[in-house]
Design a protein that fits this description.
Elements (H helix, E strand, L loop, with lengths): L1 E5 L2 E5 L3 E7 L5 E8 L49 E4 L10 E9 L18 E10 L4 E10 L4 E10 L5 E13 L4 E7 L7 E6 L3 E6 L9 E9 L9 E7 L4 E7 L5 E7 L6 E3 L4 E3 L2 E7 L3 H15 L13 E3 L1 H4 L5 H14 L3 E4 L28 H10 L3 E6 L3 E3 L3 H5 L18 E3 L5 H16 L3 E6 L21 H19 L4 E4 L9 H4 L4 E3 L6 H11 L8 E6 L12 H8 L3 E5 L7 H23 L1 E6 L6 E7 L5 E8 L9 E3 L9 E4 L2 E4 H6 L2 E3 L8 E8 L2
Parallel strand pairs: 21-22, 21-30, 22-23, 23-26, 26-27, 27-28, 28-29, 29-30
Antiparallel strand pairs: 1-2, 2-3, 3-4, 5-10, 6-7, 7-8, 8-9, 9-19, 9-20, 10-17, 10-18, 11-12, 11-14, 13-16, 14-15, 15-20, 16-17, 24-25, 31-32, 32-33, 33-38, 34-37, 35-36, 35-38
Helix pairs in contact: 6-7, 9-10, 10-11
This protein binds (2R,3S,4R,5S)-2-(hydroxymethyl)piperidine-3,4,5-triol.
Length: about 725
């Protein structure tokens, strides 16, 4: 791993990958390559660009045109007609700066991003960072481009800083985290599209001429489009082809753009959505974009996922719980919803304790006057009548049963029927012109206001300090409308969406530092804000409100492209399933939920004796194997989007142990045999499976024969142990 600057070329590299940037004679930053390892000296930019209908800046040299050359952080309006990486507006109305290379620095380690979540290193030997300073002297504008390579990862972390050195304020209208120009070729992409309770479904498309992409304008990363793009050369598969994974570490409005030009090149960008974005920079002020991680694999998608899983598990998730086994939990939501008595909770806790569970989570409905979803958000004090005493008493009773205690909050929200609204009607987000809009009967607090952030930190700190609460589920159940803050002047209203997210990050940083041993789980009606930004503060996330095991096959498959199993919370729920009324066997529900941070979400006190035995086995199996699930290398074996079956596996780093999961998603009477080809084993090892020994190469090249696949919902987990 290293970064060099030789013959006007920057080369960021390790044994597998190269990222090459040229500083041209004209002092432009030209992108030469990102992909498999190369000799940087042998790379050149195109010298003879056709001058018809191009634009150029030097009459003596019309064949040098930024309208066709690949660039690192392109400006708009000045000879490049493609999408600009950033846009500004000066007080005179000018908006066509041209950045030129000024200087560079190569440092050990990775600098923090002020106020933003980002990949981190624990010591400076782990990484190197290239910082390139570019400038347009006439505009008084500087842009710093950051590139970090971390030892052992085929990925580059990028972000930009935009600095106003002019005498007057400038308005930043667009500030993408990165821009990357791919050479002429045929490309395809996969994005993670979805909806509430149907998150992260994969959709594969060809990159066609013109602009395409996806975005969120919901004030959150959203259920509809996860901030992740898998971009690849045509025909790439799980294990074949050049592929790029692009993951934005941001929880607000995002935008991913692919622009295929007349010459078949493709520009790819990702960053904050320019929708309603207008950030005013006073003289000397800097704007920092969120970070984007771009991973490369010359062997298809699987390796992209491996890079993200390990990087995010160990260099994005932080704190006490990062490497700890996640407790198996019981959540009361689908068992009782908000309608419960203390007795109901204790009955569930007794059953959970008897089954060997480790954490009891009290979901929505424990505070204020909250018995349904119309009231009390913001009133974060326990309903002692409903809980039959103080919260701390309930916590002690749960702890006495050998269970940790966890609590649900939705801190960013306010109900109009609440004490908080009576006291602070001006704290919710609304414009001066129109009545506020609602979502799930609630409004959003204006986190751009310091007093609102202070309230949330204080009221949550109070609860967390006064009872032994070891887990928090942080929910957020609506999207943002009426983006406006009475605390911002008119010419700063375009900062609102981003300042909201910065405010949220500040609250999360404060609370997670103040309560370092509390396990925080992110949630937004399931996966409405399941993004890498949140993982920096909360090492796990409620994957979806759809707990149906078959639906989860799709959701968890899509999630697995980028998010590690340790971050995906998955629960066994009752049948018929509450969201889609399907009844799946308990074994299948268990096997699907045991592919992440495991838990149950049903009334355990109502299980039959057979079910009790089965759940006890599931709990014991998970306890014995969760280390493999959390830290093993994950392989997608059969894709439920295209196959009647689903299968996946986890293999330990030493390749000596593996868990293989197999599910019949849809049965057929003809009962075809499946030869399940395993991955990631050692071809020199022999593995024992249920008493029979197979060679690793047979299991990978011929497969493991599955005959018993005749009913829908049939599932099993195989454990492989190397025997030589
Ligand atoms: C939405 C979450 O996704 C659910 O798990 C549950 O916590 C409800 N909110 C509670 O209102």
């Amino acid at each position: 791993m290293g970064i060099e600057f030789l013959n006007n070329k920057f080369h960021i590299f390790n044994n597998d990958i190269s990222y090459v940037i040229e500083v041209s004679e004209q002092n432009d930053l030209l992108h030469l390559h990102f992909g498999a390892s190369v000799e940087a000296n042998n790379l050149f930019h195109q010298k003879n660009i056709n001058t018809e209908f191009t634009s150029y800046s030097d009459e003596e040299n019309p064949k040098y045109s930024l309208s066709a050359l690949p660039q690192e952080y392109p400006s708009g309006g000045a000879s490049d007609f493609r999408a600009p990486a950033y846009q500004i507006l000066t007080k005179d109305g000018c908006h066509t700066p041209e950045l030129k290379f000024k200087s560079y620095e190569i440092i050990n380690g990775k600098p923090k991003l002020e106020g933003l979540p980002a990949v981190y290193t624990e010591n400076d030997n782990e990484a190197q960072t290239l910082i390139i300073l570019t400038e347009d002297i006439n505009y008084g504008l500087q842009v710093k481009l950051y590139y970090t390579i971390i030892n052992g990862y085929n990925a580059i972390c990028r972000h930009s800083e935009i600095i106003n050195n002019s005498d007057s304020p400038i308005h930043l209208k667009n500030a993408q985290s990165f821009s990357l120009d791919f050479p002429a070729g045929n490309y395809e992409y996969i994005h993670l599209e979805g909806a509430w309770a149907r998150e992260k479904h994969i959709e594969r498309n060809a990159v066609h001429k013109g602009s395409q992409g996806f975005e969120s304008r919901r004030g959150a990363s959203g259920h509809i489009e996860n901030p992740f793009l898998l971009f690849f050369e045509q025909g790439a598969t799980e294990d074949y082809g050049n592929a790029y994974g692009i993951s934005l570490i941001y929880s607000g409005n995002h935008k991913f753009l692919m622009e295929r030009e007349y010459n078949e090149t493709v520009r790819v960008q990702a960053g904050i959505n320019p929708f309603e974005f207008d950030f005013k920079l006073e003289h000397g002020q800097t704007f920092t974009t969120p970070e984007v991680v771009i991973a490369f694999s010359e062997n298809g998608f699987s390796k992209i996922s491996h890079t993200f899983h390990k990087l995010y598990r160990t260099h994005l998730c932080r704190g006490y719980w990062r490497d700890k086994a996640r407790p198996i939990l019981i959540n009361n939501w689908e068992a009782t919803y908000a309608d419960f008595t203390k007795n109901d909770l204790i009955k569930i806790a007794d059953a959970a304790s008897n089954l060997g569970l480790e954490l009891f989570v009290l979901d929505d409905g424990w505070f204020g006057e909250r018995n349904d979803d119309t009231t009390s958000l913001g009133d974060w004090f326990a309903n002692e009548k409903k809980l039959n005493g103080p919260l701390s008493d309930l916590v002690s009773e749960i702890n006495k049963r050998g269970l940790k205690f966890g609590l649900w909050f939705e801190p960013e929200m306010i109900s109009l029927k609440s004490e908080l609204y009576k006291a602070h009607p001006d704290w919710l987000i609304k414009t001066p012109y129109s009545k506020e809009h609602y979502g799930r009967h609630q409004c959003i607090l204006d986190l751009t206001k310091p007093e609102v952030r202070g309230y949330i930190v204080n009221i949550l700190s109070n609860i967390l300090s006064n009872a032994n609460i070891e887990y928090v589920k942080w929910d957020m159940n609506r999207n943002m409308t009426d983006a406006y803050s009475s605390s911002l002047p008119a010419d700063r209203q375009g900062e609102f969406y981003h300042r909201y997210i910065l405010g949220l990050y500040e609250i999360l940083e404060t609370l997670t530092q103040k309560f370092p041993k509390v396990l925080f789980e992110g949630c937004s009606g399931g996966g409405g804000r399941n993004d890498p930004g949140m993982l920096y503060y909360m090492p796990q996330n409620w994957t979806s409100d759809d707990t149906d095991a078959t639906e989860r096959l799709f959701i968890q498959y899509g999630s697995s492209l980028v998010y590690p199993a340790s971050t995906m919370a998955c629960h066994v729920s009752a049948v018929p399933n509450h969201q889609i009324k399907r009844s799946s066997p308990l074994s299948m529900r268990g096997n699907v939920a045991m592919s992440g941070a495991f838990g149950y979400e049903l009334d355990l006190s109502k299980l039959s004796s057979e079910e009790i035995d089965e759940v006890k086995n599931q709990v014991e199996f998970y306890k014995n194997n969760r280390d493999i699930i959390m830290n093993g290398t994950f392989y997608r074996l059969l894709n439920p989007f295209v196959s009647r079956h689903a299968a996946w596996s986890y293999v330990t780093e030493d390749e000596k142990t593996a868990l293989v999961y197999y599910i019949v998603k849809q049965a057929r009477p003809t009962n075809e045999a499946v030869y399940l080809k395993l991955k990631g084993l050692n071809s020199n090892y022999n593995y024992e499976i249920n008493g029979t020994v197979y060679s690793g190469k047979t299991l990978m090249n011929y497969g493991y024969l599955i005959e018993d696949n005749e009913y829908e919902g049939m599932s099993f987990i195989l454990k492989l142990n190397a025997v030589n």
